[in-house]
TrEMBL record, chain A:
Family statement: Belongs to the ABC transporter superfamily.
Organism: Sedimentitalea xiamensis
Main location: membrane
SUPFAM superfamilies (alphabetical): P-loop containing nucleoside triphosphate hydrolases (SSF52540)
Gene3D superfamilies to which the protein is assigned, alphabetical: P-loop containing nucleotide triphosphate hydrolases
Record's bilayer topology term: Peripheral membrane protein
KW Nucleotidyltransferase (keyword) present: no
GO molecular function, one term: ATP binding
A Pfam family recorded for this sequence: oligo_HPY
SMART domains: AAA
Assigned keywords, A-Z: ATP-binding, Cell membrane, Membrane, Nucleotide-binding, Transport
PANTHER family: DIPEPTIDE TRANSPORT ATP-BINDING PROTEIN DPPD (PTHR43297:SF2), OLIGOPEPTIDE TRANSPORT ATP-BINDING PROTEIN APPD (PTHR43297)
Lineage of the species this protein comes from: Bacteria, Pseudomonadati, Pseudomonadota, Alphaproteobacteria, Rhodobacterales
Name by which UniProt lists this protein: ABC transporter ATP-binding protein
TrEMBL record, chain B:
Assigned protein family: Belongs to the ABC transporter superfamily.
Organism of derivation: Sedimentitalea xiamensis
Record membrane topology: Peripheral membrane protein
CDD domains xrefs: ABC_NikE_OppD_transporters
Compartments where found: Cell inner membrane
Principal location: membrane
Keyword annotations of the record: ATP-binding, Nucleotide-binding, Transport
Transport keyword on record: yes
Annotated ABC transporter domain residues: 11-261
Superkingdom classification of source: Bacteria
Alphabetical list of InterPro entries matching this protein: AAA+_ATPase, ABC_transp_ATP-bind, ABC_transporter-like_ATP-bd, ABC_transporter-like_CS, Oligopep_ABC_C, P-loop_NTPase
Name by which UniProt lists this protein: ATP-binding cassette domain-containing protein
TrEMBL record, chain C:
Major location (coarse): membrane
Pfam family, one: OppC_N
Entry's transmembrane regions: 31-53, 94-120, 141-170, 254-279
Family of this protein: Belongs to the binding-protein-dependent transport system permease family.
Name assigned to this protein: ABC transporter permease
Alphabetized SUPFAM superfamilies for the sequence: MetI-like
Organism: Sedimentitalea xiamensis
Length: 328, 338, 294
């Protein structure tokens, strides 16, 4: 069966004052219908840029897809017309963002904002759209949906606003939902509710989810497969459990072990956290023919500095772009 | 100068309350009060770390600010080495501030963009005048080294540093006056995970090197678990549970703590398999019109009638664990387990 | 002692002063740079003009209404046969001095009131903002006319009259900047390290609040020049000093017969005020940190 979304050798270039830099450099992955995949990495590694590329929302005049292809349901998106992309967005592929405070329009009620999407994409009448907006609010577990549908965003808490965003994103039953750090601004108990909601919705509607996050715990909780991004490149990808148990890229290992996780039983002993020294290189260094993680890597060799490592395949489609992947 | 009795805690906070006036109903509305911190007590032993955890609106940051007298408390005492910080007059307060310093959350807004890094670190020394002017540059040099920055970087302006480096400058500034207590208010939450590890390790190393006592405010339970010795869990201005690290994380008593811990996603396969996630529905009550009973009652999965009628007090269990819940039994059996 | 790494995260950049960076941004705005050059020429003319072109603007030197260029008078003569070129050059002094002085005065009043209101809050803020609102709702031209009419049309009094009606915008900007900055963490940090109120206000918060105030002050120089022109057009000016507005005012009856006598000083005002606005715009780009980031 052909995958729902297939990204092949994608290269996205960003024009900055210092020249053209590849923010996404030779990225390939596949997403099956109803699957859940996560992008992980530090800020500035190109996670959000990938999402914007798929949505056709790259910053105008600055960003462009230089080469590679994105196929959705067999249809090429990199060459699709603006009109076609507008049809797809919000209808077949939708997106929710990090900041639930600013992504809703404060002057319209939440009901109007959900109904607006339904009328634009599905041609529903005013009354039918309102009716369905109420049902959607109920589906994202806003208590007393019928009473709350006329509320303005400021009358809702952060968690409720994020639910409204999810309701808007799911209004047209999209095939793919892209969630860009959907819970970063929320409290952990609210995050648990949102994760629970997203998992249930995926099971019920078969919507595939792409979640962008920096939290390995969230990945373990939410995703089946993950892609670790570093400096615009794929560092490692594969099944979540397998990568957490046995990472094949030093960056992945660093990301997992630099965070103090809650374990089942806490003991008296406390390790010093593993540090990944330094920071992500700046855009002007992207695109060099070497391993871009080399400057922060504890296992760096001359080979890493001389040539960009190819992706090496392991069991269960785990792939790692590291010269020393086999030894890790 | 330092307190000679070793056993007495460095910091004692007693019945601290902070309230904010809230005007409702336009210009002629009644003024009511929001108790952001309500009757909070805790103490910290020298060289140890107390963490206050809680979600937004729990009052944890306000508590920290009130301890440092950066917001005014309406009631209570904050004793640092026996001296009541809240009763000092302006003159004495400026001197006393040397013993208690703050590390802020946002590495971007916590440094004055118009000052060079060296000046930022020097500022506390210049305003407190505890050290002769001639010695100050030497202290700045030492601090830069201690927090892992190049001496050449002293001449740079804040915007020329990365987030992690800025946080190092903030730490150097906090240590300039040789404080005993350092309050870290979400000191790593704005940083990327890899940089966060660098700063956490630095804070630990500095604690050992300079014999620091930390009051650590955070919403990240993983970080708290790694950093602290004792934890106070706050909910809506109150401490609902207070215990040492192992006891709190391995056998939480209060239903809110249980739910909070169960909500934290983890990479540990066993923890995920064996922890039942307890979802607490709904929102906290209106902080201005609090219900008569327990503040968590409306979201608590095991709430009884008594919880909605009587406000539970913080009581000690035989194990030394303190909890504010009617339903935890005398021997410390919690009403809810994950 | 610590195992924190010495981070070569970025090469040690040369420590550039924020002002150098601001100049860099300003230079990119070509209109502003051109305006700055024009403005510099006008200011130079105002300062040195009377030596280079010593003709007395009050002296009747030739037949009235000589058109520009005729008989060696570059800009012609007015209804009394006075040299317009001389009026223009000598008038520049007055217009610019009044513009700058009035702007300075309103910045002084506005910053003081705005800073106190924004820093102390509470009843201080209530009181000062009510005062500000009082001045805001006064009909400005009328109020300054009353002042000048009552206390005499000397240059200092005209400056005062303009300054006293135009500080409210600065006060509001200063207050809102103070409200924003006072709760930033570096101000807290400064307080936590024992800095006193006066130092907090003037050495910590004020320098960071300055950019929008500077922009506003620059624009205010322009509006003060217009204001002065308006007053002198109405005859409310020192009769012994020549200014651009006064030239327009005194020639206004002959606008149909000799339009150049009114147009030439009008263009001078227009060019000066436009140049100031463009420079203000450039300053806004240069000092606004939101635009500076990347």
């Amino acid at each position: 069966m052909a995958p729902l979304l297939k990204v092949e050798n994608l290269r996205i270039e960003l024009t900055t004052r210092k020249g053209v830099a590849p923010v996404i450099d030779d990225l390939s992955f596949e997403l099956g219908a109803g699957e859940s995949i996560s992008f992980v990495g530090e800020s500035g590694c190109g996670k959000s840029m990938t999402a914007l590329g798929i949505m056709g929302l790259l910053p105008e005049k600055i960003g462009r897809i230089a080469s590679g292809s994105i196929t959705f349901n067999g249809e090429e998106l990199t060459t699709a017309s603006d009109k076609r992309m507008r049809d797809l967005r919000g209808n077949e592929i939708s997106m929710i963002f990090q900041e639930p405070m600013t992504s809703l329009n404060p002057v319209y009620t939440v009901g109007e904002q959900i109904a607006e999407v339904l009328r634009a994409h599905q041609g529903l009448g005013r009354k039918a759209a309102w009716e369905q907006a109420t049902e959607l609010l109920d589906a994202v577990r806003i208590p007393n949906a019928r009473g709350r549908v006329g509320d303005y965003p400021f009358q809702m808490s952060g968690g409720q606003r994020q639910r409204v965003m999810i309701a808007i994103a799911l209004a047209c039953k999209p095939r793919i939902l892209i969630a860009d750090e959907p819970t970063t601004a929320l409290d952990v108990t609210v995050q648990a509710q949102i994760f629970d909601l997203l998992n249930d919705l995926r099971r019920q509607t078969g919507t595939a989810i792409i979640m962008i996050t920096h939290d390995m715990g969230a990945v373990a909780e939410m995703a089946e497969r993950m892609i670790v991004m570093y400096a615009g490149r794929n560092a490692e990808q594969g099944p979540v459990e397998q990568i957490i148990d046995h990472p094949r890229h030093p960056y992945t290992r660093g990301l997992i072990s630099c965070v103090p996780h809650l374990m089942k039983v806490l003991t008296e002993e406390r390790h010093t956290l593993t540090e990944v020294p330094g920071i992500v290189p700046s855009l002007s260094e992207f695109g060099r023919d070497q391993c871009l993680f080399a400057s922060r890597c504890p296992q760096v060799t001359q080979q890493c500095l001389d040539k960009r490592p190819p992706e090496m395949a392991f069991a269960d489609d785990q792939r790692s772009a590291c010269w020393h992947a086999e030894d890790i | 100068m330092r307190d000679s009795t070793v056993d007495s805690p460095l910091v004692e906070v007693l019945n601290l309350s902070v309230r904010f006036p809230v005007k409702r109903g336009g210009a002629f509305g009644r003024t009511s009060y929001l108790y952001a911190v309500d009757d909070v007590s805790f103490d910290i032993r020298r060289g140890e770390t107390l963490a206050i955890v809680g979600e937004s609106g729990s009052g944890k940051t306000t508590t920290a600010l009130a301890v440092a007298r950066l917001v005014a408390a309406c009631d209570g005492e904050v004793k640092v080495a026996g001296q009541d910080f809240l009763k000092l007059d302006d003159q004495a307060l400026r001197k006393a501030r040397a013993r208690l310093q703050f590390i802020f959350q946002d590495p971007y807004s916590s440094l004055n963009p118009r000052l060079r890094a060296e000046k930022i670190v020097r500022e506390p020394l210049d305003s407190m005048e505890t050290v002769p002017a001639a010695d100050r540059q030497g202290i700045v040099d030492k601090l830069f080294k201690a927090v892992g920055l190049h001496p050449e970087q002293q001449r740079l302006f804040p915007h020329q540093f990365s987030g992690g480096q800025r946080q190092r400058i903030g730490i150097a500034r906090a240590l300039a006056t040789q404080p005993e207590l350092v309050i870290c208010d979400e000191a790593v939450s704005a940083l990327d995970v890899a940089v966060q590890a660098q700063i956490l390790n630095l804070l630990k190393a500095l604690q050992a090197e300079f014999d620091l006592t930390y009051l650590f405010i955070s919403h990240d339970l993983g970080v708290v678990q790694h950093m602290c010795d004792t934890i106070a869990v706050m909910y809506m201005g109150r401490i609902v549970e207070y215990a040492d690290r192992l006891s709190l994380f391995n056998s939480p008593k209060h239903p809110y703590t249980v739910a909070l811990l169960s909500a934290v996603p983890s990479v540990d396969k066993e923890r995920r398999a064996e922890t039942r996630r307890i979802l607490i529905p709904g929102d906290p009550p209106d902080p201005v019109n609090l219900p008569p009973g327990c503040r968590f009652a409306n979201r608590c999965p095991v709430a009884q009638d008594i919880c909605r009628q009587t406000d539970p007090a913080l009581r000690s269990l035989p194990s030394g664990h303190r909890v504010a819940c009617h339903l935890v039994s005398e021997d410390g059996t919690p009403p809810l387990t994950p | 002692m610590t195992d924190a790494p010495i981070l070569p995260e970025r090469e040690i950049e040369k420590a550039r002063h924020p002002l150098a960076e601001a100049w860099e941004m300003f230079r990119r705005n070509h209109a502003a740079v051109a305006a700055l050059i024009v403005l510099a020429l006008i200011v130079l003319a105002a300062i040195f003009g009377p030596w280079i072109y010593p003709t007395d603007p009050f002296e009747m030197v030739w037949a009235p209404f000589s058109p520009p260029g005729a008989d060696g008078f570059l800009l012609g003569t007015d209804y009394l046969g006075r040299d317009l070129m001389a009026a223009l050059i000598h008038g520049a002094r007055v217009s610019i001095v009044i513009g700058v002085a009035a702007a300075l005065m309103s910045v002084l009043i506005g910053v003081t009131i705005g800073a106190l209101a924004g820093f102390y809050r509470g009843w201080v803020e209530e009181l000062l903002m009510r005062v500000t609102e009082f001045f805001q709702v006064l009909p400005t031209l009328l109020f300054s006319m009353v002042i000048v009419a009552l206390f005499g049309a000397s240059l200092p009094m005209i400056t005062f009259a303009i300054g006293i009606v135009s500080w409210t915008a600065v006060a509001r900007i200063t207050r809102s900047e103070f409200l924003r900055i006072r709760q930033l963490e570096y101000v807290m940090a400064s307080r936590a390290s024992g800095t006193g109120n006066r130092k907090l206000m003037f050495s910590v918060i004020l320098p960071n609040a300055l950019p929008p105030i500077i922009v506003q002050a620059a624009l205010m120089v322009g509006s003060a020049i217009l204001f002065e022109a308006g007053l002198s057009f109405l005859g409310l000016t020192d009769p012994n000093v020549v200014s651009w507005g006064q030239v327009i005012g005194s020639n206004r009856q002959y606008i149909l017969d000799a339009s150049f006598t009114v147009t030439i000083p009008g263009v001078a005002i227009f060019v000066t005020v436009l140049a100031i606005s463009l420079v203000g715009d450039g300053l806004n780009d240069a000092l606004n940190p939101k635009l500076r980031q990347r």
